């Protein structure tokens, strides 16, 4: 690149008599090479300015120009890195023949060479292009950062909306949990109440069964008591009838005894031939007792008919032995009270 620059400078000196249009055409044709050469020259210039500032710093004579060049060089070092340092070393070795900075500016101001003016313009345009490029990069970075910020803001908005939704959902779930807890408590109390009611119903059922049994037994007892009372009533009636019958028989026996006193030792026969003698008195008494039990309470007239048929024998003709034996038979199931 340095050799190309020297060749271009030599060609420019050889063609000094050419017109400005030819030089401009040559410049535009060789613009990429010139831009690279000017970038190299710019870096070399910055390195020389830095060295000059360092020499001034050693002599403790700082100036505003040295500070300005030092800041520019530091920025360039931050951007370029080690390439700028290497290029500055190369520029120092290749441009060691040039005059000092003051003499260079003095010569530029004194001579007013159009090539130097064009070089300055090219350097300014290069600087402008570099600055514009940096500005474009900064703008791109700003746009990207703004896009990223917008995306982050949108993400934050989405996250905030999701957070609010989750908070609402959490609150709703909390309300549902509280409602379920209350419902569970109500169901637990209701279950205990139902258990108590079931126990009460079981006790009531047992009591009803016992009451039913008591009722059935009481009904049976009442029926039995009614039967007992009926039997007692019938027993009383039978006993009264028997007592009346005994009284009537006693009266009749007394009357008959008075009538048959003169006929001792005589025998009377039954009309149907049931009893023939006094030896068959026991069998006749048993048959008469069976007939009386089957008659069922109408013993008044029937007993009188049987009495006429019975053969009276012994006991002085009174007939009391047979009557006493008849009374001793168990005719009725229940005795008198």
TrEMBL record:
It holds the Pfam family KIP1. Residues 1-59 form the NAB domain. Keywords: Coiled coil. Residues 80-108 are annotated as: Disordered. GO terms for molecular function: actin binding. Residues 214-241 form a coiled coil. The keyword Disulfide bond does not apply. It comes from the Eukaryota. Belongs to the NET family. This is NAB domain-containing protein. It comes from Cuscuta europaea.
């Amino acid at each position: 690149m340095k050799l190309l620059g020297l060749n271009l400078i030599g060609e420019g000196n050889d063609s000094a008599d050419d017109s400005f249009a030819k030089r401009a055409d040559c410049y535009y044709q060789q613009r990429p090479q010139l831009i690279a050469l000017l970038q190299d020259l710019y870096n070399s210039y910055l390195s020389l300015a830095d060295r000059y500032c360092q020499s001034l710093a050693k002599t403790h004579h700082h100036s505003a120009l040295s500070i300005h060049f030092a800041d520019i060089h530091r920025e360039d070092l931050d951007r370029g890195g080690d390439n700028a340092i290497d290029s500055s070393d190369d520029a120092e070795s290749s441009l060691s023949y040039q005059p000092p900075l003051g003499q260079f500016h003095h010569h530029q101001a004194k001579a007013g060479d159009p090539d130097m003016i064009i070089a300055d313009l090219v350097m300014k345009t290069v600087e402008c292009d570099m600055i514009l490029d940096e500005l474009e990069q900064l703008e791109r970075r700003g746009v990207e950062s703004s896009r990223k910020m917008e995306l982050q803001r949108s993400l934050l908005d989405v996250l905030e909306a999701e957070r609010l939704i989750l908070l609402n959902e959490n609150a709703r779930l909390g309300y549902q949990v509280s409602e379920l807890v209350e419902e569970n408590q109500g169901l637990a109390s209701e279950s205990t109440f139902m258990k108590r009611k079931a126990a009460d119903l079981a006790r009531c059922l047992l009591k009803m069964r016992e009451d039913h049994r008591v009722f059935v037994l009481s009904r049976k007892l009442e029926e039995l008591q009614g039967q007992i009372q009926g039997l007692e009533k019938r027993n009383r009636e039978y006993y009264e009838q028997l007592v009346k019958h005994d009284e009537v028989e006693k009266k009749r026996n007394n009357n008959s005894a008075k009538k048959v006193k003169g006929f001792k030792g005589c025998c009377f026969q039954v009309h149907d031939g049931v009893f023939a003698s006094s030896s068959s008195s026991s069998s006749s008494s048993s048959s008469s007792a069976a007939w009386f039990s089957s008659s069922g309470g109408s013993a008044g007239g029937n007993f009188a008919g049987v009495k006429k048929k019975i053969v009276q024998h012994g006991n002085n003709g009174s007939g009391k032995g047979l009557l006493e034996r008849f009374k001793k038979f168990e005719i009725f199931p229940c005795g008198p009270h």
